[in-house]
## 1
Amino acid sequence: MNALTVLLALLAACANAAASVLMRRAAMEPGQGQGHAATEPKDDPEGPNDPDAPDSADGPSGPSRRGRRLSWLAGAGLLAGSAVAQAAALAVGSLSVVQPLLASELLFMLAIGGAVFHRRPGRTTWLSFLALAAGLALFLGAAAPSAGRATADASRWVPVAVGVGCAVLVLAVVARFVRAAPRAAVLGLASAVLFAATAALLKEVTGRMPEGPAALAAHWTTYATAVTGLAAFGLLQCAFRAGTLVASQPALTLGDALTSTALGWALFGEHIALGARVLPETAGVALIAAGTVGLARCPEVSGEWDARPASAPRPVAGRDGRRREAPAATESTRATPERA
């Protein structure tokens, strides 16, 4: 593992985290910012030309259409930049090293998401994410994946493609029977499997770059990379619309890393160390399990912290029908749902 591989992988993780936050913001409906838009009156005495109306700029009731469109475009641009950094990292490093390093996306996501949504994640959330990331780092550090081959044997792609396709199909079917946070997690895992497959195909493409542009244009993996990446991107959008980042991001990031490790072994001959290193590897798996359980108990999973800024006041209707700014909710009032 060289420094350039680590730097490029961390750059890709940071860009991925920023893209996830911006695209989740773009998926928010107008009026979702405070979680109380449904209780606000739709008629405004000041008319549609009011410069403070939600459609003209981001307001207490959530992002405007223009703001959501700009957020989506910025997220798509960052996602493309992340793909470039990831391809560069795969060109100089192994699949089993580059993809697990993207687990640092969790920490970047919390920092960027807290700034964008004006909410500070709770201590339990931080500890859960840290346990997940530390467990994965410990497991892969002890496993010490080998470099493997630059390209895969052609005979290995068919069974791998069948396995990946079946896994995504099963997860898509399961997602139809669940809602909210579980649905976001299942769709996030499905997109993670496809993103891992995209990374494997991308590594194959980078491994064939010395053959020249003509050989790349004639090889099927060049086009399979684009198709699989677009499918993963589509599932990612579904995951963002199904629930919060806290629900979808762990499954997305960790599922990508673990699936990539398996694909590195199956396709490129990358191996992990066993023997005496089984103990720290087991400890890493235990930390991952502990982080998953802790995250499932976090109030943010059902509270949609990324869709409800804490500091902005929300407008309410007075007895005269005009809107007034209500005080921002405190921790105690946020914890208690409003009664009808």
## 2
Amino acid sequence: MSLIFFPPPIQQINSEIIHRAGVDLYVLRLDLMHPWVNGNKWFKLKYNLLEAKEKNFTTLLTFGGAYSNHIYATAAAGNLFGFRTIGIIRGEERLPLNPTLSFAVQQGMQLVYMNREMYRQRNTPVIEEYLQQRFGEVFIIPEGGSNLNGVRGCMEIIYDAVYAFDHICVACGTATTLTGIALSLHQGQRAIAFPVLKNGSFLAQEIESLLTNYLASDLPTLSNSPASWELVCDYHFGGYAKVNDELLLFSQQFREEHGIPLDYVYTAKMFYGVMDLLKQGFFSKGDSLLLVHTGGLQGNVGMEEKLQRFSKI
């Protein structure tokens, strides 16, 4: 597989809803950067991989659920860049492996299952010491790539397009991507995050903590003052990885109309939220919006399989 990463195109979207709202709407297609290591996953991994290489680590260890985009991307990136990879998977082993974990194994990742109680303590010194004792000298990347290296990478997402838009919209899981984007924008611009978790307002504290810790670090920054940011918490559709017929229908129609596939866990919820806010007059006429497509399309296969099973019950 080629190591080439393609510059993500920016695609304009036109519809009657957008026209009536009087805004310009564009999509940053991070999903097209690479077949396997794409979306915000690449940006969150980039500087973790560089640090691991600089410190002469040969093995990466990270965490995720059974359908994790981060597990998928880390396995592929490890294989592409010459690292051994270990994935600590939340919960018990289920056979046959789902498409996400099958792919990870094909990329050479060793899967290790951890019970949920122990998994909740994954970021504590006790668990980190246990993992180092069990696996030796490994470079540990947090779940979702949510650390300062991840923030640093996400500062590069908007890049050349940074001056062109009033609002940058992104789905939000760990808040790492939103934090990096907020640090890369200019005053007068606004980053808007759509949490995919129920009661996602708690992420405001996570964002403030990440911002404070990053600005206090020695890592490079584009600004000592992050741009304005906001959480819109009304479009989680019941919680993480929860979907309903309305969201599925929206995703299908959006793809048919605009040729852009959306993943159900993250981008579909954000796109739905933006379109709904446009109907409500949330944005001002003349505003320009950039919606960040954060990839994750691999997860749709597993999600569709789960939905088919439930529909037969």
